[in-house]
Amino acid sequence: MVAVANSRGRGDVIALLRSRGADPMAANAYGSTPRGTAELVANYEYRTALC
Known about the structure:
With 51 residues, the chain is an all-alpha fold. The protein has one domain. Helix content is 57%, strand content 0%. It has helices spanning 2-6, 11-19, 34-41, 44-50. Helix 2 (11-19) packs parallel to helix 4. The longest helix is centred in the first third of the chain and has 9 residues, at 11-19.
């Protein structure tokens, strides 16, 4: 999900992507998911937007 909105506090971008059908559990070629990345960086806003 655009590397969790480029990890720059863009919860609004995450919400927009979700509203357009982006899947927070879609894995990239390395098996990483946007939700997993949000949990890794421990960003509350990202985790809430992706759950």
